[in-house]
Model the fold of this input.
Amino acid sequence: MRQQYPDIQAKGTEVVAISFEPRDRLFQLVRQLQLPFPILSDPERDVYFAYSLTQGSLLKIFSPKTIWTYIKHFARLQKYEHSASDWRQLGGDFILDEEGTVLYEFRGQAPSDRPSVATLIAKLDA
Done:
C-alpha cells in the first residue's frame, strides 16, 4: 500500500487504516514501516463491530497460507511485536464515498486473506 499510495491520492482518494492496537504501539508501527497514511486506534473495536468484522477460528488463523505469509514477512526481516495483539481478530478493506456509503467491502476470513492493492485501486475506478 505504501508504494501505491501516490496512485491512490492521484485519484482524489485517501487511505485510513484502523487498528485495535493502542496509540503508542501504532506510533511505533507507523515509524517502523514508514507509512504515509494515518492509522487510527480503536482499542474498543467499535469500528470493527460496526463493520461486522469478527474473530477467526484457530484453524483459519493458523492455516498453511497464513503461516506462509508470516514466514515471508520474517524472511524479509519485517517484524512487528504482536505480544499484546489479538491474533484472532480479522480485518477488512472498505471503500467509502464522501457521505460514508460503502462502495466496496471485503471481510477477511483469515489474517492473510486480503485483496491486493491493485484490486482496491481498480475498485476506485469502478
Summary: Residues 64-75 form the longest helix (12 residues). Residues 5-125 form a domain with the Glutaredoxin fold (CATH 3.40.30). The chain has a mean pLDDT of 83. The chain has one domain: 5-125.
